[in-house]
Specification:
With about 120 residues, the protein is mainly beta. It contains no helices and twelve strands. The termini are far apart.
Length: about 120
C-alpha cells in the first residue's frame, strides 16, 4: 500500500496482506522482509533514517535503520492512519482513513492536532 525510499535509494514497500514491509535495493533486488507490522499502510523516513509505518488501527510504528523495532511513535487519536509525510522541521503528518482527517505530531511523537504545527 505504501512506498518510501531511504537516503541510499533502497525502496521499502508496505505489504498490507502479508503484514510485512519489504526492502528492495536500488537495482530492484528483493532484500527480504525489513519489518513485520500488522496491516502496514503508509511509510515515511525521518532525517535520522528511522522508518515510520502506519497501520490500520491507531498506531505508527518506528524502526531503526537496521530494522530494530523502537517504541511506537504515537497512538493518540489516530483512526486508521495511512499516508505519512515528514515536514522539514521534523513534524510528521498522518492522513487518517477512518475519520477523513489529517493529524500532525511533533518530532517527539506528541500529537499536535489537525494540520497546524506550532
Amino acid at each position: 500500500m505504501g512506498l518510501a525510499f531511504d537516503a541510499t535509494g533502497n525502496l521499502y514497500a508496505a505489504n498490507f496482506a502479508g503484514n510485512t514491509v519489504r526492502k528492495f535495493s536500488p537495482n530492484g533486488t528483493d532484500l527480504g522482509i525489513f519489518a513485520i507490522v500488522t496491516r502496514p499502510t503508509g511509510l515515511a523516513f525521518d532525517a535520522a533514517g528511522n522508518l515510520y509505518v502506519a497501520n490500520i488501527g491507531t498506531t505508527i510504528q518506528r524502526f531503526s535503520p537496521n530494522g530494530t523495532q523502537l517504541t511506537p511513535f504515537t497512538s493518540l487519536a489516530l483512526n486508521n492512519p495511512e499516508g505519512l509525510a515528514f515536514a522539514s522541521l521534523g513534524f510528521l503528518y498522518a492522513a487518517n482513513h477512518g475519520s477523513n482527517t489529517s493529524q500532525v505530531s511533533s518530532p517527539t511523537g506528541l500529537l499536535r492536532g489537525p494540520l497546524s504545527p506550532p
